[in-house]
Amino acid sequence: MQPGEFDAKAFLKTLTQRPGIYKMLDEKGEIIYIGKAKNLKNRVSSYFRTQNASPKQQAMVAKVAGIEVTVTHTEGEALLLESQLIKRHKPRYNISLRDDKSYPYVFISSFHDFPQLTFHRGAKKRRGKYFGPYPSASAVKETLKLLQKIFPVRQCEDSYYSARSRPCLQHQIERCTAPCVGLVIKEQYANDVENTILFLEGQGGLLIDRLVVKMEAAAAQLEFEQAAAYRDQIARLRAVLEKHCVEGEKGDVDILACAAKNGAACVQVFFIRNGQHLGNRQFFPKVGDENQPEEILQAFIAQYYLDKTVPHELIVSHALPESALVAEVLAEQAKHAVAIANNVRGERMKWLQMAITNADSALNARLADRQGLQGRFFSLQQELGCDITPTRLECFDISHTQGEQTVASCVVFDREGPVKSDYRRFNIDGINAGDDYAAIHQAVFRRFSRLKNGEHPAPDILLIDGGKGQVAEAEKALAELEINDVMIVGVAKGPDRKAGMEKIILVGNKQPLDVTPGASALLLIQQIRDEAHRFAITGHRQRRGKVNKQSVLEDIAGLGPKRRQVLLKQFGGLQGVSSAGVDALASIDGISRQLAQRIYDTFHHQDGH
C-alpha cells in the first residue's frame, strides 16, 4: 500500500470517540508512531488538520499508509498499553526508553541459621529481605563494603561457607565473626543481622541510640574493650549516615530531572529508599528535535516504571502534561498511592537542583561525544570514498581456543555509538577446527538471512576483523543471499598488532587502502573492532565454561543432570568439585560413597596425565 492511498477522511468516519491507542503504519506495515487518546476520533483527526501541524507531524503523516486502533475502557488503560507497546516496538517518532536493565538489590536471607548478606539481581525467589533497587552494581557493592566494616555479617557464598574448616581472611581483619566454624553464637549473630536490617530500613538514628545504651552499660560494668568496640561502631555509623541520609526524608522517593536540546535528552534519576540516598543513574531516551522536557519526562516515567517497584513519591523537574493520569496509573500498578510533585522547597529543592545540574552536565558530555562521533563517521566516509556519510556499521569477529567452541560476534554502531540491543552472537558448528574463513562465512550468512526476513536494518558498512580471506568469505555469503548494497571492509591487524597500524582491506583492491595518517576514521574502526573482539571473547568464555562444566561430569556413570547441578552449586563450580575429597563429595545428598569415589577418581586420573 502506498502512502498516497491512505484515505484519511474515510478512516476517520469509522473511528469511535472512546479511549484507546492508535498505531500509525508506513507502506511496509512497520509501526512509526503509537499514541493514546481519551477520545480516539478527536485525537487522530488532529493529525490531519495541516494548518497547525508542526514539521515533524507533517513528515510523519506523509509516511502514514494505515492506522490501527485498540479501544480500552479508560484513558488510564490506554496510557499503560501505549507505554508497553512503545517499549516493545520503539517506533521512529516516539520518545522511547532504550536502557532497560534489571536493577540490583541488597539481600539478607531468612532460610539460614546464620543469614547471608549479599548482592542480588533478577527474580526475587529466595526467602529473605530485599533492599533497593540500587542504581547500579557498583552502588550495591559500595553499600556491602560499608556494611561489612560496621556489622560483621557473612557475605560469602554458601558453597564457600559450607566448605570452611578454619576462619577466612574476613574474620582475621574483623569483618566477619566466622559462623562457618562456630566462633559466634546464634544470638550474637542474630543481633548483628537485626542491626544490619535496621540500618537498611533507614532506622540509623534508632540503631545509634541502642548502641549508645549498650556502650554505656558496658562501661558501667568495666568492660572497656567492649565499650570501645561500640564507640567505634557508632562513629562509623554516624559517618555513613551523614554521607547517605537525606534530611527530612523517611520513605521512598525518586527524584527525576530532564535536560533536552539538539535532538537529545538526559533523564537523571536519584534513588532514595528509607530516607537514604542509594545513588543516581542517567538515561538517554530516544527523542526528536521538537520534544519538550515535560513530555519526555512523562513518556520516560510511563515506560520506566512499567515493570519496576514504584516509590510513594516522584519529584520531577518539570510539571507533567498529564500528572494526575500518570499518578493514577502508577498507583493502580503499585497498589499504593503515588504522588508526583515538582514544586518543592528546602532540602528537597537542593536535591532536585542537584539532579537538574547532573542531567545538564551529562547531556552536554553526551552531545560533545556525539559531535566527536559524527566527525569520525564523516572521516570514515572520506577515507572509504562513500557517496554519503554512513549511519550504521556492523563488525564481525571470531573467537575460539585451538579451534574449539568457536563463537562469532556481531556488534552494531550508529552515529550515537554502540547499539547494544542489536548485538548478536553465533555459536559456530559444522566447520573444521580453526577454520576462521568458514566461521566468518557462516556468521555473516546467518546474520544477513535474518536481515532478509526483516529482523533488523541493513548496515551501510560491514567491517570484518581479518584480511583478504575473511573479506572474500563475507562477500561470498552476501552474494549467496543476493545482497549487493553493503560495503565490506576488512580490518587486518598491523605489525605487532599495534593500534593505529591496521590495514584496511576493500573488496577488489589488491593493496590495502592508503588511509590519511591520524584520520579519526581509524579511531572509529579501532573502537568498533575492539568492541567486537570483547563481545566475541565473552561469548566464547561462556560457551567454553559451559562445555567444560558439562563434559567431564557427564562422563561419570550414575551422575545425572540434577546431581551434577547440586554438585556444581554446592562446591561453587567445577574447580571446587575437582578439588573436593571423597568424604566431602559423599556428604552431599544423593551422592553415595561409591559415586563419590568415581567422581574423585575422574579428576584424580585426569590430574595424573
From TrEMBL:
UniProt keyword Metal-binding present: no
Signal peptide boundaries: none
CDD domains: GIY-YIG_UvrC_Cho
InterPro entries per the UniProt record, alphabetical: GIY-YIG_endonuc (IPR000305), GIY-YIG_endonuc_sf (IPR035901), GIY-YIG_UvrC_Cho (IPR047296), RuvA_2-like (IPR010994), UVR_dom (IPR001943), UVR_dom_sf (IPR036876), UvrABC_protein_C (IPR050066), UvrC (IPR004791)
Top-level lineage group: Bacteria
Domain GIY-YIG: 17-95
Record key words, sorted: Cytoplasm, DNA damage, DNA excision, DNA repair, Excision nuclease, SOS response
SUPFAM superfamilies, A to Z: C-terminal UvrC-binding domain of UvrB, GIY-YIG endonuclease, RuvA domain 2-like
Family, similarity comment: Belongs to the UvrC family.
Function recorded in the entry: The UvrABC repair system catalyzes the recognition and processing of DNA lesions. UvrC both incises the 5' and 3' sides of the lesion. The N-terminal half is responsible for the 3' incision and the C-terminal half is responsible for the 5' incision.
Quaternary structure (record): Interacts with UvrB in an incision complex.
Name the record gives this protein: UvrABC system protein C
Native species: Methylomonas defluvii
